[in-house]
Amino acid sequence: MTTLTSTHDLLAAIPFLIGYHPENSLVLVSLKDGSIGMAMRVDLPVDIAVESYDLLASHLVREEADGALIVAYADESAPDPESVLINTSAALVRAGLSIKESLIVRNQRFRSLLCTDSECCPSVGTPILELDTSRIAAEHVIAGHRMPFANVNGLTQSIAALDSSHKDSWQDEVHTFWISPDSEELNDLQRDGATAVIDLAGEYLQGRGSQDRELTARVIGRLSDIQVRDFALGCHTSENVDHYWAMWRELLRIAPRGFVAPIASLFASLAYERGEGALAQKALDRALADDDQYSLALLLRRVFNAGWPPESFTAMRIDLHPKVVAGIFG
Fold first, then answer.
1. Residue 156 lies in a domain
2. One domain, residues 249 and 320
3. What pLDDT tens digit does each residue of the chain (330 aa) get?
4. Which of 123, 151, 179 is the last residue of a domain?
5. Looking at the structure, do residues 31 and 97 belong to the same domain, yes or no?
6. Last residue of a domain, which of 120, 151, 182?
7. CA–centroid distance for 175 within its chain
8. 1: in domain
């Protein structure tokens, strides 16, 4: 994350941190040694217990943060969120964290609860600058990041199923590559699936994407096997992560019913590693809508909700991969 030098920088950075422009939200941004860590967004709390605020603070403690930035976004009809910020600040202080900023954003204006100077922090608030004029936005775009979605609905629609995923002919084609756990050729099919994942990633590397329909159907179908899915979970590296990101996103949108959960879980794990927690949660929504008992999706939901640091998840995935490879290829 780029260096934040002002309140305007912070407000410009938050939509990039969570993936969209928040509405009626409480956002906590962790700080460690002066550097930005994770950003956590929850619906703007109303009449919740003190213990719930302490739970929010515990997520930052788990990340070993030493400070926090707090922003409450409220529309015109929402109650004044000042008490929410006070309760949140109190919980963070109880947890040993220092509060670097506490802001209320309403009607495209912001005011700070920490600043008492009426000249720089008027009671009516200060106008928020347009995002596309900010230094933060320019640096993110230059780095290849997309602009944040206008709202959470835009985020959700970015991974929604395409109409083509519902075609019976496509469903049948993918199903021909489904792997039965009782198959006498189970290991051969797992090898075929793992090889297909690598081959399709190579297609994305070459800029061809999912043009090879048979190979695409093979990957989606073979991911029905847990070993193939776990192999796919560990395939990306820092060098090829962008190609796997594009691949899992597109496959998530075209996967037919009954084949969504594995791909949605893979995309969710990658989104979480990239710091896109909101998108990771929306991907899990799709996974559990396809199979409400899908074990990896349920596990990831617990991991994400517990605020487990993305680096720890990455380390676990990297450690698991050689074992999965050995199980498939011997």
1. no
2. yes
3. 556 788 999 999 999 888 899 999 999 999 988 788 888 888 998 888 889 999 899 989 988 899 999 999 999 888 889 999 999 999 999 999 999 999 999 999 999 999 888 888 888 899 998 888 888 888 877 777 778 888 989 999 999 999 999 999 999 999 999 999 999 999 999 999 999 999 999 999 999 999 999 999 999 999 999 999 999 999 999 899 999 999 999 999 999 999 999 999 999 999 998 878 889 999 999 999 999 999 999 999 998 887 777 888 889 899 999 999 999 998
4. 151
5. yes
6. 151
7. 29
8. no
Same domain, 318 and 221: yes
Pairing state between β 67-73 and 98-106: parallel
* One domain for residues 176 and 319: yes
For every residue of 22-52, DSSP letters joined together read: -SSEEEEEEEETTEEEEEEEEEPP-S--HHH
Q: Where are the alpha helices (DSSP H) in 75-185?
A: 82-94, 135-142, 152-157, 168-175
Laid out side by side, the sheet with 35-43 consists of: 35-43, 25-32, 67-73, 98-106, 109-112, 126-127
Q: What range defines the domain where residue 322 resides?
A: 163-329
- CA proximity to 200, closest of 265, 258, 266, 156: 266
Residues 6 or more apart whose CB falls under 8 angstroms from that of 15 comprise 21, 22, 131, 148
Q: What are the angstrom distances between the C-alpha of 82 and each of 13, 70, 71?
A: 22, 11, 10
Residue whose entry in the numeric block shows the structure tokens 């922090």: 121
Q: Which two tokens stand for residue 149?
A: 């979605």
DSSP conformation letters of 248-263: HHHHHHHPPTTSHHHH
72 lies in the same domain as 192: no
In a domain, 2, yes or no: no
Structure tokens given for 2:
């780029």
Q: How far is CA 175 from CA 102, 178, 197, 218, 253, in A?
A: 52, 5, 16, 9, 17
In a domain, 157, yes or no: no
Q: Whole-angstrom Cα distance, residue 28 to residue 126?
A: 20
Tell me how many domains the chain contains. Answer: 2
Two tokens at 118? Answer: 């009426």
